[in-house]
Automatic annotation (TrEMBL):
Species per Swiss-Prot/TrEMBL record: Candidatus Mucispirillum faecigallinarum
Keywords in alphabetical order: Membrane, Transmembrane, Transmembrane helix
Stored InterPro entries: Brnchd-chn_aa_trnsp_AzlD
Annotated protein name in UniProt: AzlD domain-containing protein
Transmembrane segments: 7-24, 44-63, 70-89
Length: 113
């Protein structure tokens, strides 16, 4: 099925992944084109971004990457940085400033404290 050239295999995999990514995002638009969704569905879909963000952030902040155990401590730099960045974000409504603050704070805590 595939040639013995590993580079050709990599290109085929990349093209396949791009096609799957594109069509999985485009298909809902094609199916729902011209339809009006019920308000309950629209409201439910509004929760999807925060659910995905929470699913990505919570394990990164609370689970130790080496031991894979819950790590709630003042030694957890990611947790400290996450909490302080969240508090900073409540007062400063600028996403770019919050990202710069969080990255800078983690670098300072990791390398200078």
């Amino acid at each position: 099925m595939f040639s013995s050239n590993p580079l050709e295999y990599i290109y085929i995999v990349i093209i396949g992944m791009a096609a799957v990514s594109y069509f999985s995002r485009e298909l809902p638009f094609v199916i729902l084109k011209g339809r009006k969704l019920k308000p309950g569905i629209v409201e439910w879909m509004g929760y999807i971004p925060i659910a995905v963000l929470s699913a990505l952030l919570i394990p990164a902040l609370l689970i130790d990457s080496e031991s894979k155990k819950l790590f709630i401590s003042l030694d957890n730099l990611f947790l400290i940085t996450g909490v302080l960045t969240f508090i900073f974000g409540l007062f400063i409504k600028n996403l770019f400033a919050v990202i710069i603050f969080g990255v800078s704070l983690l670098a300072i805590l990791r390398y200078f404290v």
